[in-house]
Design brief:
- The structure is a single chain.
- The chain is mainly β.
- Strands 3-31-32-33-34 form a five-stranded mixed beta sheet, with no helix packed on it. Strands 4-37-36-35 form a four-stranded antiparallel beta sheet, with no helix packed on it. A four-stranded antiparallel beta sheet has the order 5-6-7-8, with no helix packed on it.
- The longest helix is centred in the N-terminal third of the chain and has 26 residues, at about 35-60.
Amino acid sequence: MTSTKKPIRWWPIFSIAGLALLGIGLIWFMDADHRQDEIIKTIMVLLLTVILAVLWLLCFSRLAWRVKLVAAAVLILGGVACGSLFQFDGFSGDLVPKFKLRWDKKTAEPTVSNPSERVPESYQMDYPQFLGPNRNAVITNVKLKRNWEEHPPTLVWRKPVGAGWSGFAVAGNFAITQEQEGDWEKVVCYDLHTGDIKWSHRDRARYDTALAGLGPRATPTIDKSKVYTLGSTGILNCLELNTGQPLWSKNVFEAHGAGTPPWGVSSSPLVLNDIVVVSAGGAVAYHTETGEVAWIGHRTRTGYSSPFVTTLAGTEQIILFNQGLVTAHEPATGELLWKQPWPRAECVAQPMPLSGDQLLVSTGYGVGAKLFQVTRNPTADFNVSLIWETIYLKAKFTTIIYHAGYLYGLDDGIFACVKLADGTRQWKRGRYGHGQTLLVSDVLLVLTESGEVVLLEPTPESHRELARFRALTGHTTWNTPALAGSYLLVRNNREAACYQLPTE
């Protein structure tokens, strides 16, 4: 009696591949406004596809056992080889897993430009806090040359730094940031012109997750002779500017029973007159001299944006973007002036006050932007009404810029222009990732997620890129840049660099 060999069963693997392609297509078609969600679902589909393909190979393919064993051995050896060659290096702003070679070295020691070519120190202008002098990512006292081929930026210094997503604050020759070293969170002061360390202060604290990464997130604030910093676990420091010596320190989250946000504390301190305001379960103010509590504002779930001061409806107020809520506080007492609910999305981007008592608020994760009108009724109560909303301006980490009637910013990692009057999109182009943007007089300076610096002309007619250069090596760059006069300070979670930009 002769035995007949059963044919190889191909239809399951073809069905698995077909269903995977169909699933990915539906994901990207149905969730067109939420790229991070699309990527997570796509990764899940791919992982499930691999698992089902291995089950087919070993259990249902009818391949010869020798072929199965060889295929299994190749898969195992391939996995071991990949694990030996590469290591996990966090996620991009779109939640794409990143890997690097295990022998990838840190950046080499800095190369320094010719000191005689630098702008005199008298030209320096401070960048003392998060997003610049007015905390709005707008620099008005510097005008950049547009032709970087004829007048290229010059590297002043470059050096490795500890992990973290903090930016630089600059006052005079002091350039201060926060970074991680082992189990210590450090505040480090660098010499603006040389990159040498002037002083450092450290606290035993460490925040590290696979998605959020390692290290402190908030940018220091310099006010007169003091530096205020907020660490990733909630340690608020007041330090001497010249020496880094601590004047007082508080763990604001422990003190107010607030839960640390899942991505770590990233709110930069706001100094206003004799108080410093932070976000810890809502707005909290401390006296700058003593560190004692000045007032406690409306309690809510802590967000990731930073408090700022503005005037709306004729009243000075401190605005804070919390999780699911925008709140406004009277600066002297912390009294809640008004609040505006917001969809439950990670609130990182700064709300932007505009003329006419308007406030623009935006988040990523498929939410978009809304323009609000703030008014006061005859009884002096505040009213907040919606003017328009759009899905075409989803600011995840970045800050939206207003210029000459139009809004500019990274819409889920792609640069876009939206008309302020009605929220209509003019154009969307330029895949810069989840980077950061500054308006420098009449040009836009974009620090991309991959570490390039791009110069754009802000015009509603089209996307116009004027120049670009690679400022940092290819590691994730979410940190905000700082521009002090002609000196541009950039950093990521591995290195920092200072460039002198060509100015008019």
